[in-house]
């Protein structure tokens, strides 16, 4: 391996990325950097201007001009941060989320067109090659909080949610395949019929690999969203992934116009319970039950979005 090899690969990959935006339609009417800011606002709960500047390594003045443009176009709203009144909290408006969704759909279509030129039998090889590059270039450095990416599910991720929920809860709590069946039904219902404006899945990624997940779906109760299937891989805990995933659900539910977020969990899941409490969820009721081959205590929790926002 030489410097020439790396520079040659960089030139090749830059040409590939350029091909994705052939005709300059992928990001229009936004620049690449503006599109990155929109993506970050749509997928990360860390939406203070200072956090965006750090996450994207942008000049403060440049980012400020982008945000001013977005506000003039009705894509974002800014308000004092709950963490620090000196900061400005930024959220996407409905128009802003539509713009982010359109860019995401264009990106999926472009990448899909690129992948269509690769034989299906070679897809695993390509995926492993990309993961190998990420792993080798980050070798010797433990993952950091800033390495965590929240993204939409890619093909295969919904199956990963089912498999990892089943495996992790079997290993840590001894739950049987009844739980895997429950998760499979939840995921299948989402995959077959969901409104992307009101329901969403997030995958937390670390070093190119899925490390956590959560879902936000409509509840049967009017005006209520339901948080489901929060999971963080054991070797990725301690990076704040669970907190970021719950934050993403809360911010999305508020932006989608829900009045409350509901969830059901079990009292043995103490780490998750502490996250819910930090975000303002209140325990409504608990009841003993026998499920998944274990004696458990189920709990219903609720977050009032209007009260939490005040």
From TrEMBL:
Pfam families noted in UniProt: Acetyltransf_1, MarR
Span of domain HTH marR-type: 1-135
UniProt keyword Transferase present: yes
Domain called N-acetyltransferase: residue spans: 148-306
Domain of life the protein comes from: Bacteria
Presence of keyword Transferase: yes
InterPro entries attached to this UniProt entry: Acyl_CoA_acyltransferase, GNAT_dom, HTH_MarR-typ, NAT_camello-type, WH-like_DNA-bd_sf, WH_DNA-bd_sf
Record keywords, A-Z: Transferase
Coiled-coil ranges per UniProt: none
GO molecular function: DNA-binding transcription factor activity; N-acetyltransferase activity
CDD domains: NAT_SF
Name of the protein in question: GNAT family N-acetyltransferase
Species lineage: Bacteria, Bacillati, Actinomycetota, Actinomycetes, Kitasatosporales
């Amino acid at each position: 391996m030489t410097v020439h090899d790396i520079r040659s690969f960089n030139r090749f990959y830059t040409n590939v990325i350029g091909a994705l935006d052939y005709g300059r339609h992928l990001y229009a009417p936004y620049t690449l950097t503006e599109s990155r800011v929109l993506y970050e606002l749509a997928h990360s709960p860390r939406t203070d201007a200072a956090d965006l500047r750090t996450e994207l390594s942008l000049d403060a003045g440049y980012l400020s001009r982008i945000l001013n443009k977005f506000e003039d176009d009705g894509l974002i709203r800014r308000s004092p941060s709950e963490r620090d009144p000196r900061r400005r909290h930024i959220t996407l408006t409905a128009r802003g989320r539509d713009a982010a969704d359109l860019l995401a759909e264009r990106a999926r279509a472009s990448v899909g067109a690129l992948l269509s030129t690769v034989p299906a039998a070679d897809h695993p090889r390509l995926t492993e090659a990309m993961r190998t590059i990420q792993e080798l270039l980050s070798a010797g450095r433990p993952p950091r909080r800033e390495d965590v990416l929240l993204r939409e599910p890619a093909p295969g991720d919904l199956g990963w949610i089912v498999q990892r929920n089943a495996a992790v809860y079997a290993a840590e709590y001894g739950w049987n395949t009844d739980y895997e069946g429950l998760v499979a039904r939840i995921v299948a219902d989402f995959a077959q019929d969901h409104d992307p404006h009101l329901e969403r899945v997030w995958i937390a990624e670390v070093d190119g690999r899925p490390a956590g997940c959560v879902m936000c779906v409509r509840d049967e109760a009017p005006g209520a969203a339901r948080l489901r299937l929060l999971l963080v891989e054991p070797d990725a805990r301690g990076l704040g992934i669970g907190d970021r995933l719950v934050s993403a659900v809360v911010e999305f539910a508020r932006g989608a116009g829900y009045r409350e977020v509901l969830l059901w969990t079990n009292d043995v899941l103490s780490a998750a319970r502490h996250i819910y409490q930090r975000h303002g969820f209140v325990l409504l009721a608990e009841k003993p039950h026998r499920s998944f081959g274990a004696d458990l205590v189920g709990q219903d929790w609720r977050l009032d979005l209007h009260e939490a926002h005040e």
